[in-house]
Amino acid sequence: xxxxxxxxxxxxxxxxxxxxxxxxxxxxxxxxxxxxxxxxxxxxxxxxxxxxxxxxxxxxxxxxxxxxxxxxxxxxxxxxxxxxxxxxxxxxxxxxxxxxxxxxxxxxxxxxxxxxxxxxxxxxxxxxxxxxxxxxxxxxxxxxxxxxxxxxxxxxxxxxxxxxxxxxxxxxxxxxxxxxxxxxxxxxxxxxxxxxxxxxxxxxxxxxxxxxxxxxxxxxxxxxxxxxxxxxxxxxxxxxxxxxxxxxxxxxxxxxxxxxxxxxxxxxxxxxxxxxxxxxxxxxxxxxxxxxxxxxxxxxxxxxxxxxxxxxxxxxxxxxxxxxxxxxxxxxxxxxxxxxxxxxxxxxxxxxxxxxxxxxxxxxxxxxxxxxxxxxxxxxxxxxxxxxxxxxxxxxxxxxxxxxxxxxxxxxxxxxxxxxxxxxxxxxxxxxxxxxxxxxxxxxxxxxxxxxxxxxxxxxxxxxxxxxxxxxxxxxxxxxxxxxxxxxxxxxxxxxxxxxxxxxxxxxxxxxxxxxxxxxxxxxxxxxxxxxxxxxxxxxxxxxxxxxxxxxxxxxxxxxxxxxxxxxxxxxxxxxxxxxxxxxxxxxxxxxxxxxxxxxxxxxxxxxxxxxxxxxxxxxxxxxxxxxxxxxxxxxxxxxxxxxxxxxxxxxxxxxxxxxxxxxxxxxxxxxxxxxxxxxxxxxxxxxxxxxxxxxxxxxxxxxxxxxxxxxxxxxxxxxxxxxxxxxxxxxxxxxxxxxxxxxxxxxxxxxxxxxxx
Length: 758
Ligand code: BGC
Description:
By secondary structure, this protein is of the alpha/beta class.
């Protein structure tokens, strides 16, 4: 009997939510917010309502059911929602419930609409709820959305325009679900390859990562058109990616100078591009957790960088000041520390204790009301800028391109342009004979999960039941490009143990070429911690054993981070480094192997040869003395910026417009690039420089500018790059960004020219 009435209640709720959703979409939503003027709103809000605006809870707190259940997905629990809205006046909700699961577009609309409808009823002067989500490589928690290559692969395209387009689509498909706030991009620099979130970065170089950051922000945001754009969130301010152990959320020791030299510029560039929100680093730098660091969160972020948007904590990080960092004895002390350090919104996210404690602190006079008003004003401004006071959920018909083939092609282009050809002995690739007998093996050969990595339908991205329908694995795509009956497959190994290597070797005997697809378990954050960069022994053994056959071996790598493969590199004829290329990665890789795609990706990081040889391309000269004083000790497995093509480019006519450079001037560096091969192809022209003598030991080489061009066979183009004094600046001992007077050497492949900077 009980069960029957529950079913009746559920059905009637679903029907009424449906009716409300239609109703909601057609009514003038703006009427539900009688006050839209921010000053007036703040004057009419109680302390409890203001504190509510500063809190963010997880969907799980207000939902019922199992998000992971595709047939009967999670729905809003109206009783729980009422507590969140009426009692605690919560202003923001995030993510999918239970920490994982993908949600249909229709269900998202229902969830968001129900929240907003109930919210409008909950107060005399309601403020719209801002929903935030991790759309990390596309709208990855929305079923059927376009999944792009992960950020590290996007950086490998060296094509900011493509990265902008990917982010535009990501924003469009996130808004299609009714969600206006995306916790992306990650602007932490990838200088610690052990880190489990290395794949979420734009790589190790400041210049490259800065242009990607600007592209991502402009793709996600827009100040004029909210229907198809979202607020970006710069993550994770500051120094999160460079912990000493390489483990997630563990201590980083970074001098103020290095913090500003390497880790700050991406954030600075994003702020200058109008980034609306920022998420804070969960870890500590030099003994101070960033969530409690006034110098970083207020003096640096607000006073110096002039950031005026919203600063949100990372997951439960205020409480972690007590139970992880031990800098606060009680949660109340932790709330005071974080708010006074500069936090605007607490991703609490599982309870309402933050709200109660903050109210107490203000009532006792430990936190001034003016501090609360400052954050509330920023949050209300954000909601206003995003158009939330006017309309919250748009009609599905406004998003005809959601999950379209047109969008998939942009993802395919990004995956294709990311592919970095690291080795191609005797031009073994491309395989132009479509009837060639191919033997395919390895854990990444037939897995969409290993192409996508974490943040794919679920947090860790390991569950195959949510995979996007119709997308091809590498094996499936190879079967389309070659005569299917000539493509045979056996797994060989799982990610870390041998399955059937001996059978692989017997089967491979009949093949003309062997394609080994190696990979890494999709993972991020603490679950992705490792202690050794070396690729799993079982996967290395698979190549070892196959190499004894003496047949050409093509290696395809789908790694979260540059796993050490030194022991097998000499046994391989070709290496196709695909990063985590997303849902279209299988197609892009197969097309690269068959020649439909001419690879043009370049490494956005230095690929190490040994686990303890983490030296970046822009190292100091003294690193070169490390082993034999011969000045060439720096020999990574593959250099930053390296990547081969199926065609051949030659460079000539290197010219620099002036040999001196002073204030407010710019010089033009030009070079002629010719495609001397037989295929159309893309090339990345990379201009480096060296400060010959400087007050802080200069790097042996630093990227100053780059440009990606496309040339038909036989075609030439003159590439012109404009640079100014600022491009040679660095942080001096006084923590000031300066360009010192003296000689700068410009370097473009083998061309070198000295200029004098005044
Ligand atoms: C991650 C963030 C993410 C947040 C919300 C945290 O654990 O560090 O990057 O945005 O969770 O899911």
